[in-house]
Design a protein that fits this description.
This protein is α/β, with parallel strands linked by helices. The protein has 14 helices and twelve strands.
């Protein structure tokens, strides 16, 4: 303080040099660097999606019920009326928003890991497609960023193709969360929704199904390369019934962003997870990432690991309204072999060993 008073006195006396020298003696303010600011923005963008997925539906439901007991009950009543009127929209193509899909926040989301989308073959807008996404991971970060936003440039890499990421139908019964999901082109993973997109919505549609689902999420740990696929044949039957081409998609690094406690089969922990999964449609995973301010602490922030999503070669599928089991098995085997080939072709490029293999369960 004395230094500032002395400098001000020097200015009044006309000795500007004293003022400059006094300012130079003041301690410098430690402003954060541009890279640190960007990193914090990236963390915020990732956490807003994680928290939205985990608690937005429940919080909005409780908030809506609370409004009924306040002077703002009319707002809640109007929204409920709108919800009833709009109930079937998620099953009829949804209500995607190019503005939401192009939010700047998704670019920060992409750069945190970072997430990349790799195109291997051209997809024809005159066909419809079913993308099989592997592995599930904990939050399907690669699936959401690549197919639920435009952060990685899906529309530029695959012109004329409109992606629809499919997720639990229960999410679309929750207020506001349903609208948030639909704005990204996300749809329920049920038969009505799939049929509409693949038969009554024209061509150039790509329905993205995370084939392994909740069962696969229970096995996601760093360094493990396995997918739940052997007995998952419903998406192949759907492809045959609609004449939609099958496209294998593998995200290298999806399992690396969280560490998870794995319960052995037959243990009480695994028994409770299975029961919860059967009841609610998803499995509770006991996982952790790092803290907001330090990678050495535990928290909900995922680890910053590269996620490279490779879209493989499409498998041409004929339209058979009532496919036999042999026909389903044939195209399922073709899909499995195409996925294994995709994994082996790109595994070394994205940091795996030549000896690493993809296990099927």
């Amino acid at each position: 303080m004395k230094t500032i008073i002395a400098a001000y006195s020097g200015v009044l006396r006309g000795t500007g040099a004293n003022f400059l020298s006094a300012i130079q003696d003041l301690p410098s303010v430690p402003w954060p660097s541009k890279s640190k600011v960007e990193k914090q923005l990236q963390i915020i963008s990732v956490m807003q999606w994680v928290l939205s997925f985990l608690v937005m539906g429940a919080v909005c439901t409780v908030g809506l019920l609370y409004l009924f007991f306040t002077d703002c009950w009319l707002i809640a009543a109007l929204y409920i009326a709108w919800l009833v009127f709009d109930w079937n929209t998620p099953r009829q193509g949804g209500r995607r928003s190019s503005w939401v899909r192009n939010w700047t926040v998704w670019k920060y989301f992409r750069d945190y890991f970072p997430i990349r989308l790799i195109k291997t073959h051209t997809l024809l807008p005159s066909r419809n497609y079913i993308f099989g996404y592997h592995p599930h991971g904990i939050f399907c970060f690669g699936a959401f960023c690549n197919f639920g936003t435009e952060a990685t440039g899906f529309s530029k890499k695959f012109p004329g193709i409109c992606p629809h990421l499919a997720t639990l139908a229960g999410n679309f019964r929750l207020p506001l969360l349903r609208d948030y999901l639909m704005s990204g082109g996300i749809c329920p993973v049920n038969r009505n929704s799939m049929d509409y997109l693949l038969s009554r919505n024209g061509t150039g549609n790509a329905v993205v199904i995370v084939v392994g689902g909740a069962a696969e999420s229970l096995e996601c740990i760093p360094g493990k390369h396995s997918v739940t696929l052997k007995n998952r044949k419903g998406f192949v039957k759907l492809a045959l019934q609609q004449g939609a081409d099958l496209v294998p998609v593998y995200s290298f690094g999806e399992n690396e962003v969280y560490k998870q406690i794995i319960f052995e089969e037959g243990s009480w922990g695994r028994y409770l997870q299975r029961k919860f999964q059967k009841l609610m449609g998803f499995a509770p995973c006991f996982f952790h990432g790092c803290g907001i301010f330090s990678t050495n602490s535990w928290g909900m922030v995922p680890y910053s690991k590269d996620i490279n999503t490779v879209v493989g070669e499409p498998i041409t599928v004929p339209k058979i309204e009532s496919p036999s089991q042999d026909e389903v098995d044939l195209y399922h085997d073709m899909y499995v072999q195409s996925l294994l080939k995709l994994f082996d072709r790109y595994k070394v490029k994205f940091g795996l060993l030549e000896t690493d293999t993809l296990a099927l369960h």
